[in-house]
Specification:
By secondary structure, this protein is of the alpha+beta class. Helix content is about 30%, strand content about 20%.
Length: about 180
Amino acid sequence: MDERTPKHPTDKLRTNVPKMLIAVVGFILVVAYGTVAFSAQDLVWFLTDFDARPERVVVYHGGQRTEYLSGAPDFDRLAEAVRASLASGVTRPSGIGMSADSLQEAFSQFVTVEAFFAQPIKLHAWFNTAHPTQMLFPITGRHSDQPIVFLGSNGQYLSNAPVLNSVQPLRDALQSTGLH
């Protein structure tokens, strides 16, 4: 018998089970990560950091509208509070939208913070948060029972607002400015 001929026909067909399991688990992880990254349109969807600061913050309170621009008193405190609230991370989509009537009430009857960004930004989450240039935080009134932020651009807000881990930094900043 030739030395190059296998002694048994199945000798060359042996499966390396540990390597196969590693390959299957690796494939499943890559597919799961890729699916979430594709649907969220964000390769780093798992991050919670957020370092963009708004260029303008508008606070609606008791029918009044107060606008804060860079350099104005309390602007830095409010802008940092917006950033800190967003940096707390996103827990889930809320499934809530803001109707035109609800938006009008938020501006005329309740305490609401609207933040405007110079460039479209990305809020990291496991679901798609688009690339908003403005955000609306209901502090009192409708939808204020959850730490929700409505995302939008060009004066329009999207439905399915993200629920943040906390908007307490924003509530604290408003309280320190006497607006809440």
